[in-house]
Amino acid sequence: MAQERMPTIEDVAAAAGVSRSTVSRVINDHGRVSVRARAAVHRAIADLAYSPNAAAQALARGGRSRGGGGVG
């Protein structure tokens, strides 16, 4: 039996007819997004049963170091 893959942010963007960046802004409640686009993203998230990948989020946040931690 083939295992179904989890939907990605790209899948949500395609289903909503918006960019990946717009989906990210809606998920993170950051930035200006039109009411229509926001509704389309929320509908696509529900339809696809999208859930952000916690491991991917942790890696993304870890890549944005704000200084410190230098060697030397």
UniProtKB/TrEMBL annotation:
It comes from the Bacteria. InterPro entries: HTH_LacI (IPR000843), Lambda_DNA-bd_dom_sf (IPR010982). SUPFAM superfamilies: lambda repressor-like DNA-binding domains (SSF47413). Signal peptide: none annotated. The keyword Transcription regulation applies. It holds the Pfam family LacI. Residues 7-61 form the HTH lacI-type domain. Keywords: DNA-binding, Transcription, Transcription regulation. GO terms for molecular function: DNA binding. The keyword Membrane does not apply. PANTHER family: HTH-TYPE TRANSCRIPTIONAL REGULATOR GALS, LACI-RELATED TRANSCRIPTIONAL REPRESSOR. This is LacI family DNA-binding transcriptional regulator. It comes from Microbacterium pullorum.
